[in-house]
Write a structure and sequence with these properties.
About 35% of the residues lie in helices and about 20% in strands. It has helices spanning about 10-25, 30-45, 45-50, 60-75, 170-175, 180-185, 190-200, 210-215, 230-235, 245-255, 295-300, 305-310, and strands spanning about 80, 85-90, 90-100, 105, 115-120, 125-135, 150, 160-165, 205, 240-245, 265-275, 285, 290. The radius of gyration is 23 Å and the shape is elongated. The two termini are about 35 Å apart.
Length: about 325
Amino acid sequence: MTLPVALPGFDPALDEVAEAILAADPTGRRTGNVMRQSFDQLYDGGRTGVYHVDQLSPTQKTHLGTFVEVNMAKEFNFETVGVKFDYRIAGHDVDAKFSLSGGWMLPPEVIGHLCLVMQASDDEARFDIGVVRASAEWLTAGGNRDKKVALRAGHRDKITWIHRGATMPPNVLATLARPDLDVILSKRSGQQKVNEVFRRAPGRRISRAAIETLAMQRDPLKRVRRNGGARTPLAKEGMIIMNGDYTWQRDIVEALGAEPPQDGEFVSLHITPAEPGWTGPQTVIEGRAWRRGTPAEALASASELPEVLQKAGETDAGS
């Protein structure tokens, strides 16, 4: 198995650790999910309304590394080994370090040892993860008050990257255009905010955490369902909300040319009947072809929207 970037030289222990992680997560999807989970835990948006790291104090931001460290151990069943090092991977002691900026601070006790270095951007929905040996000659001199040191900029090429610029599930509230987000947040009720995010982010993956942050109440997913939730008013506008928990709904979104939602996510779309001869992305529901449309096209054909799409997510029909 070949790593994306190889470490110059020969370090069998480092290679074994990197290859073990890559073998457990060849696409980076599992690690990306850990990053998303860790950001969402830090925000605790359903209780605090926080959705972005800029809303946090420096002290609060430092807790993100702890969430990542703990969640990585749970996801990959890393053996935890105590105070000096965080994990034992492939038989080797490894210290875990996370940084939003890539400026990993290393305590004196890990010098000469292996470090699993990680960084992530919620704005870009991307992360990096790699392994490096904290060799003294590659580190800054002196250190800070805690005697911690950092990898010199000129030695970042010593990192064996397992995943570089890999994608993680997006945070729609961190990536929406500011004018759209301002309109969403200006709504008075949690239900109105949930309705508006589906209107203003069609074709984009919207997580359960984003719904919880906007609703800020018990049973936030009630704000998505019919009979009081977002599906009822949006169906009148020709919009559907597909739930990533159901295979048939993911398939519809993909057939319509949008990125399908994953477990715990939703995607809203404006749809309208596809004209005879339409050759673009389309899906057939109850014998009739549908395509993505403009808000005006969807509104004009809203009365024709199949009921199975209006109530999607309330039953497991077709999964």
